[in-house]
């Protein structure tokens, strides 16, 4: 299940509730939500089945621009994304790209360190909030 640069956390909520919690946590932090993509709904439109799988694309220019100034190709991995999915055992997961992996992948260098550290802290906070039992 482990993919390089991907952080996945088991969540004790159903997928739909988990995505609602992600969207709420992102909005509360004043970030822009660019898209919410329901991959399972897309699969159903072509008569295929897919367990719950939703992607939220979000961020802000203040956070991402320093990384792209350091390595413009990081724009392929930004804005940030959170994937909520359910495995074959019915377990819900929250996955996102590790910002340090994004920086290393694009050789962003020290000019991007503060932005990468801020993204890491942001994503960890969102994940902790989503995973909480509250």
Q: Given the helix and strand composition, which structural class is it? A: alpha+beta
Reported by name, the CATH topology is: TATA-Binding Protein
Number of strands: 5
The rounded distance between the terminal residues' Cα atoms is 28 Å
Average pLDDT, all residues: 97
CATH class: Alpha Beta
Shape: globular
What is the share of helical residues? 40-55%
Count of DSSP H/I helices: 5
Detail the poorly predicted runs: none
Integer-rounded radius of gyration: 15 Å
Topology:
Blueprint: E1 6-11, H1 15-28, E2 32-38, H2 39-45, E3 53-59, H3 61-70, E4 80-86, E5 92-97, H4 99-105, H5 113-131
Antiparallel strand pairs: 1-5, 2-3, 3-4, 4-5
Helix pairs in contact: 1-5, 3-5
Question: What's the short version?
Answer:
It contains five helices and five strands; from the N terminus they run βαβαβαββαα. It has 134 residues and is α+β, with helices and mostly antiparallel strands.
Provide an overview of this structure.
- This protein has 134 residues and is α+β, with helices and mostly antiparallel strands.
- It has a single domain, classed as TATA-Binding Protein (2-Layer Sandwich), CATH 3.30.310.70.
- Helices cover 43% and strands 25% of the residues.
- The chain has five helices and five strands.
- It has a five-stranded antiparallel β-sheet with strand order 1-5-4-3-2.
- Strand 4 and strand 5 form a beta hairpin.
- The longest helix is centred in the last third of the chain and has 19 residues.
């Amino acid at each position: 299940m482990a993919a390089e640069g991907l952080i996945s956390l088991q969540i004790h909520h159903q997928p739909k509730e988990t995505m609602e919690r992600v969207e709420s946590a992102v909005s509360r932090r004043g970030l822009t939500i660019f898209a919410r993509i329901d991959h399972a709904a897309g699969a159903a439109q072509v008569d295929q089945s897919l367990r719950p799988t939703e992607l939220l694309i979000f961020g802000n220019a203040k956070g991402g621009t320093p990384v792209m100034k350091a390595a413009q190709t990081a724009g392929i991995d930004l804005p940030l994304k959170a994937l909520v999915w359910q495995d074959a055992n019915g377990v819900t997961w929250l996955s996102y790209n590790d910002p340090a992996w994004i920086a290393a992948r694009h050789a962003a260098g020290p000019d991007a360190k503060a932005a990468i550290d801020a993204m890491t802290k942001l994503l960890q906070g969102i994940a902790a909030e989503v995973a909480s039992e509250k």
